[in-house]
Design goal:
six-stranded mixed sheet; three-stranded antiparallel sheet; alpha+beta; globular; 9 strands
Protein backbone atom coordinates (compact mmCIF):
# COMPACT_ATOMS: atom_id res chain seq x y z
CA UNK A 1 0.00 0.00 0.00
CA UNK A 2 1.20 3.49 -0.86
CA UNK A 3 1.77 5.54 2.31
CA UNK A 4 0.07 8.58 0.80
CA UNK A 5 -3.15 6.89 -0.25
CA UNK A 6 -5.80 5.10 1.75
CA UNK A 7 -6.72 1.53 0.80
CA UNK A 8 -9.92 2.67 -1.01
CA UNK A 9 -7.97 5.30 -2.96
CA UNK A 10 -5.30 2.81 -3.98
CA UNK A 11 -7.98 0.28 -4.98
CA UNK A 12 -9.71 2.79 -7.27
CA UNK A 13 -6.40 3.92 -8.83
CA UNK A 14 -5.60 0.26 -9.61
CA UNK A 15 -9.02 -0.32 -11.17
CA UNK A 16 -8.68 2.86 -13.25
CA UNK A 17 -5.31 1.61 -14.51
CA UNK A 18 -7.10 -1.47 -15.84
CA UNK A 19 -10.31 0.07 -17.21
CA UNK A 20 -8.78 3.46 -18.19
CA UNK A 21 -11.93 5.28 -17.07
CA UNK A 22 -15.18 4.69 -15.18
CA UNK A 23 -18.36 6.64 -14.52
CA UNK A 24 -19.06 7.78 -10.97
CA UNK A 25 -21.88 5.20 -10.57
CA UNK A 26 -19.39 2.42 -11.40
CA UNK A 27 -16.88 3.79 -8.88
CA UNK A 28 -19.65 4.09 -6.26
CA UNK A 29 -20.58 0.42 -6.84
CA UNK A 30 -16.96 -0.67 -6.24
CA UNK A 31 -16.53 1.43 -3.10
CA UNK A 32 -19.92 0.53 -1.61
CA UNK A 33 -19.31 -3.20 -1.91
CA UNK A 34 -15.62 -3.33 -0.98
CA UNK A 35 -15.39 -0.59 1.67
CA UNK A 36 -18.99 0.43 2.45
CA UNK A 37 -18.12 3.95 1.27
CA UNK A 38 -20.96 5.89 -0.27
CA UNK A 39 -19.22 9.24 -0.93
CA UNK A 40 -17.21 8.38 -4.02
CA UNK A 41 -17.19 11.97 -5.28
CA UNK A 42 -15.12 13.15 -2.33
CA UNK A 43 -12.63 10.32 -2.78
CA UNK A 44 -12.31 11.08 -6.50
CA UNK A 45 -11.74 14.80 -5.83
CA UNK A 46 -8.92 13.81 -3.45
CA UNK A 47 -7.37 11.56 -6.11
CA UNK A 48 -7.62 14.38 -8.65
CA UNK A 49 -5.90 16.76 -6.21
CA UNK A 50 -3.09 14.19 -5.77
CA UNK A 51 -2.74 13.85 -9.55
CA UNK A 52 -3.87 10.19 -9.54
CA UNK A 53 -7.09 10.67 -11.53
CA UNK A 54 -8.78 13.29 -13.65
CA UNK A 55 -12.34 14.03 -14.64
CA UNK A 56 -13.22 14.12 -18.31
CA UNK A 57 -16.83 15.05 -18.99
CA UNK A 58 -18.87 12.50 -17.02
CA UNK A 59 -16.11 9.94 -16.39
CA UNK A 60 -13.07 9.64 -14.14
CA UNK A 61 -9.89 8.63 -15.94
CA UNK A 62 -6.65 7.14 -14.72
CA UNK A 63 -3.50 9.17 -15.26
CA UNK A 64 -2.60 9.39 -18.95
CA UNK A 65 -5.64 7.28 -19.85
CA UNK A 66 -8.52 7.91 -22.23
CA UNK A 67 -12.05 6.52 -21.82
CA UNK A 68 -12.74 3.29 -23.69
CA UNK A 69 -16.52 2.95 -24.14
CA UNK A 70 -16.28 -0.83 -24.77
CA UNK A 71 -14.53 -1.35 -21.41
CA UNK A 72 -17.08 0.79 -19.57
CA UNK A 73 -19.89 -1.19 -21.23
CA UNK A 74 -18.19 -4.46 -20.17
CA UNK A 75 -17.99 -3.10 -16.61
CA UNK A 76 -21.76 -2.40 -16.75
CA UNK A 77 -22.40 -6.04 -17.71
CA UNK A 78 -20.27 -7.24 -14.78
CA UNK A 79 -22.19 -4.91 -12.43
CA UNK A 80 -25.52 -6.23 -13.72
CA UNK A 81 -24.52 -9.86 -13.10
CA UNK A 82 -22.82 -9.22 -9.74
CA UNK A 83 -24.94 -6.65 -7.88
CA UNK A 84 -23.66 -7.57 -4.41
CA UNK A 85 -20.08 -8.72 -4.94
CA UNK A 86 -16.99 -7.62 -6.82
CA UNK A 87 -15.85 -10.63 -8.79
CA UNK A 88 -12.25 -11.43 -9.62
CA UNK A 89 -11.67 -9.88 -13.04
CA UNK A 90 -9.08 -9.41 -15.76
CA UNK A 91 -9.30 -6.59 -18.30
CA UNK A 92 -8.28 -7.38 -21.86
CA UNK A 93 -7.59 -4.85 -24.54
CA UNK A 94 -8.31 -7.18 -27.47
CA UNK A 95 -11.63 -8.39 -28.82
CA UNK A 96 -12.38 -9.81 -25.36
CA UNK A 97 -12.74 -6.76 -23.16
CA UNK A 98 -13.23 -8.47 -19.81
CA UNK A 99 -12.97 -11.85 -18.10
CA UNK A 100 -14.58 -12.23 -14.68
CA UNK A 101 -15.28 -15.02 -12.23
CA UNK A 102 -18.26 -15.43 -9.91
CA UNK A 103 -17.50 -17.81 -7.03
CA UNK A 104 -19.32 -21.14 -7.24
CA UNK A 105 -20.99 -23.04 -4.44
CA UNK A 106 -18.83 -24.76 -1.83
CA UNK A 107 -16.40 -27.10 -3.62
CA UNK A 108 -17.48 -26.01 -7.11
CA UNK A 109 -15.46 -24.19 -9.74
CA UNK A 110 -16.22 -20.50 -10.19
CA UNK A 111 -18.49 -19.44 -13.03
CA UNK A 112 -16.35 -17.67 -15.63
CA UNK A 113 -17.49 -15.12 -18.18
CA UNK A 114 -15.81 -13.51 -21.20
CA UNK A 115 -17.29 -10.22 -22.39
CA UNK A 116 -17.03 -9.10 -26.02
CA UNK A 117 -18.16 -5.74 -27.40
CA UNK A 118 -19.74 -6.31 -30.82
CA UNK A 119 -19.58 -3.43 -33.29
CA UNK A 120 -22.46 -3.50 -35.76
CA UNK A 121 -21.32 -5.33 -38.90
CA UNK A 122 -18.48 -7.20 -37.15
CA UNK A 123 -20.57 -9.95 -35.58
CA UNK A 124 -18.94 -12.78 -37.57
CA UNK A 125 -15.39 -11.67 -36.64
CA UNK A 126 -16.19 -11.42 -32.95
CA UNK A 127 -18.13 -14.70 -32.92
CA UNK A 128 -15.32 -16.58 -34.66
CA UNK A 129 -12.81 -15.17 -32.16
CA UNK A 130 -15.04 -16.12 -29.22
CA UNK A 131 -15.52 -19.66 -30.57
CA UNK A 132 -11.75 -20.13 -30.84
CA UNK A 133 -11.15 -19.25 -27.16
CA UNK A 134 -10.76 -22.24 -24.84
CA UNK A 135 -9.65 -20.69 -21.53
CA UNK A 136 -11.05 -20.68 -18.96
CA UNK A 137 -12.71 -24.05 -19.59
CA UNK A 138 -16.51 -23.90 -19.51
CA UNK A 139 -16.73 -20.11 -19.66
CA UNK A 140 -19.89 -18.32 -20.75
CA UNK A 141 -19.64 -15.79 -23.58
CA UNK A 142 -21.37 -12.43 -23.16
CA UNK A 143 -21.77 -10.31 -26.30
CA UNK A 144 -22.53 -6.62 -25.80
CA UNK A 145 -24.70 -5.40 -28.66
CA UNK A 146 -26.19 -2.03 -29.54
CA UNK A 147 -29.37 -3.22 -31.23
CA UNK A 148 -31.80 -6.15 -31.34
CA UNK A 149 -30.88 -6.71 -34.99
CA UNK A 150 -27.38 -7.87 -34.01
CA UNK A 151 -28.67 -10.65 -31.76
CA UNK A 152 -29.84 -12.83 -34.68
CA UNK A 153 -26.31 -12.69 -36.17
CA UNK A 154 -24.55 -13.98 -33.04
CA UNK A 155 -23.37 -17.56 -32.53
CA UNK A 156 -20.86 -19.56 -30.51
CA UNK A 157 -20.02 -23.16 -29.64
CA UNK A 158 -20.32 -22.26 -25.94
CA UNK A 159 -23.17 -20.98 -23.81
CA UNK A 160 -23.68 -17.35 -24.75
CA UNK A 161 -25.88 -14.38 -24.05
CA UNK A 162 -26.37 -11.03 -25.74
CA UNK A 163 -26.43 -8.00 -23.45
CA UNK A 164 -28.41 -4.97 -24.62
CA UNK A 165 -28.69 -1.74 -22.65
CA UNK A 166 -32.19 -0.32 -22.79
CA UNK A 167 -33.28 3.30 -22.82
CA UNK A 168 -33.77 3.14 -19.06
CA UNK A 169 -30.09 2.22 -18.58
CA UNK A 170 -30.84 -1.35 -17.48
CA UNK A 171 -29.15 -4.25 -19.26
CA UNK A 172 -31.31 -7.00 -20.69
CA UNK A 173 -29.81 -10.42 -21.42
CA UNK A 174 -30.91 -12.69 -24.28
CA UNK A 175 -29.79 -16.33 -24.34
CA UNK A 176 -28.38 -17.58 -27.62
CA UNK A 177 -28.46 -21.05 -29.10
CA UNK A 178 -25.21 -23.02 -28.88
CA UNK A 179 -23.82 -24.26 -32.20
CA UNK A 180 -21.80 -27.47 -32.25
Amino acid sequence: MNGLMSAPQEFIVNVLRQFNALRIDQIEWLLKIKYDIVNARSLMRQLAYMGKARRENEVWCGVWRQPVPALMAAFDVMMALCPDTIPEFYVGHTQCQLVFYIPGEEGEMPNSFKVYYVVNGQEIDVCEYACAQRDPPGHTVLYIVSSNLQIARLYCDKTFFAALKGGDGNIEFFQGGVQN
